[in-house]
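Hi P.,

Sorry for the delay on this. The queue was packed all week, but I finally got your sequence through. Input first:
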Amino acid sequence: MLTLSNSNSQPDMNKIKSGKAIVCEYVAQGSHGKHTLVNAYSGDILVQDLPAAIPLAFFIELEFEGAGGNSQLKVNVLLGGKSKAQAEAEIQVESGKPGILVLQQAAFQIDGATDIKVTMSMDGARAITLVRKTISQGNIPGLTVPTA
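Then the structure:
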């Protein structure tokens, strides 16, 4: 479990603990606070051929601790160390209550073996990595390629 807190380290400052981070192709909002994750990656990401455009979405479960109140959240998606998507928002933190962060599907152009990661910072704290996956070319388990 990762913990992210304000760099001032005051005892009552808000903290975020990242529980589960899942990379998939699509996240659908369901009823009663549920989500459907489509084509989740259990390990690294294998693609049949490179270059390729692959759709990716991210489902991240967060747990909040601290005083509660408003906090500034910054999220960055990096591909091969280069920022490809960023989001910044003010969130209402409720201490002891979980929160869900969903980064909706986006197509990423992959030209060669690389990695993709999502980082997050809160209230100016140093960014932490929430999830990281290696992307490479290879045979996809369970995929049968027709032969002529």
